[in-house]
Design brief:
It comes from Desulfoscipio gibsoniae DSM 7213. InterPro entries: RemA-like. This is DUF370 domain-containing protein. It holds the Pfam family RemA-like. With 77 residues, the protein is an alpha+beta fold. The protein has one domain. It is 26% helix and 35% strand. The protein contains 2 helices and 6 strands; from the N terminus they run βββαβββα. It has helices spanning 28-39, 69-76, and strands at 2-6, 9-12, 16-21, 43-45, 54-58, 62-65. Strands 3-5-6-4 form a 4-stranded mixed sheet.
Length: 77
């Protein structure tokens, strides 16, 4: 099965490692991980600037989605 992340992006559910709320970046470890991923070009922003709500971590990329964690969880079930 697949999960629609917003915009025109659909990923296989088996590739998803984690779905994190954008507010979770307050943790020092999470912030460091995301900063490193951004520096290395792994982050793909599929939302308008300032509208990001969720990080979706896959095996190859990290997506910034405008869809909330709760909604993505419901879609995944």
């Amino acid at each position: 099965m697949f999960l629609h992340l917003g915009g025109d992006v659909i990923v296989p559910k088996k590739d998803i490692v984690a779905i994190l709320d954008i507010r979770s970046q307050s943790s020092a470890i999470t912030r460091e991980f995301l900063d490193m991923a951004k520096d290395e070009g792994f982050i793909v922003n599929i939302s308008e600037p300032g509208k990001e709500k969720t990080y979706i971590i896959t095996g190859s990329e990290i997506y910034l989605s405008p869809i909330s964690c709760t909604t993505l969880k419901k879609r995944a079930l």
